[in-house]
User: What shape does this take?
Amino acid sequence: MNSTAQLGTAVPDELTEEFLKRVPYVSEGISNVRFIPGSTTVAFELRPGFESQAELVASRISEVATKLCVNHRAGALKTLVKQDVLPGSFRDDPHPLLAEQGEIALFGRGRYGLGPKLVGLIEYFDRRARQMALEFQATPYTFPSLIGADVLDRCHYLKNFPASLNLVCHLREDHGVLQEFARSVRWDGEQLVHDRASGSGVECLLSPSVCFHWYMWLRDSRLPESRAITALGKCFRYESSNLTGLERLWDFSMREIIFVGSEAYVLENRKKLVDLSVRLLDELGMAYEISTATDPFFVDSYAVQAAYQQGFELKFELLAPLPYSGKKLAVGSINYHQDFFGRSFGIEMPEGPAHTGCIGFGYERLALAFIAQHGVNEKHWPDAVINGIKAATDSL
Assistant: This one.
């Protein structure tokens, strides 16, 4: 069923992509959302069974646009560094080519397996990121993929990013429940069909980030000095119909370098992170920019939260152009949280609540952007990358 929504406000060009990413969350039945050129009208389709919701869905779409645009200041985002010359003439979508080479396999929405070429590339990225971590004497840690609901509640993630959450439950410890589940459970082609009452309450979620674990580790403590750590982990963020290719995955690999300490310590290291990121991206021979940005807060709180982040320039994104789509993909981010996590987790320094910051690299995205710019043929990759991958392989 084709329908339209008349927006009460025009969505600025710089918010159009963010707006279109949010619309799929207004209803389970919505699909094929697009702007009608030259208007403030959004066209969309409703799947069978949702036709009666057309008016409700249209009003929600308009509500999203209004809340997203409140307090928006055009031109508020700044570019810190830019290298916009693409390294070559490759312009094809690499996904089909990688699939033909057996380098990617789609297991389902937002879930890909990676082959040896991509694995080697990501291992090289991680080796370089760990070398970056040594610049800060960051000690290595590892954390679980599960994170307690209490942790995400403590840092307000549950309220600020509800759309991306992945709840974890298990079957209740009840023999009758287990028998009935085993007897009746079935896969219907799209989802598991079972009695939802057989599930437990939610104690844990799949972790959406790496650094939250470290703040929980330090909870209710007093640190004698500032410190840095690094960790590699799997992160999980649900993104509805926005889950497309390696650009947006349901689960992905992230290396973080995390700082906890004084305000001066975190800000000094944030500046150093920008310089080191430029050095890495130049070594990769990529076009890129590092710009201020905002997190994808839930639309009800977006205006206030985004304005605050913009005003204090708390988030920098490492953006890489994708020649095949004309879009820019965030392959990493550098974040300064002020004393938010220090206060939320009771982490104290001699001068007061600890300040925190981090850099995170999304490896699958970085690999996609690298190949989208350089191509799938390793002969066209920079010597530093080829030699780095070879050195890592030879050391095994």
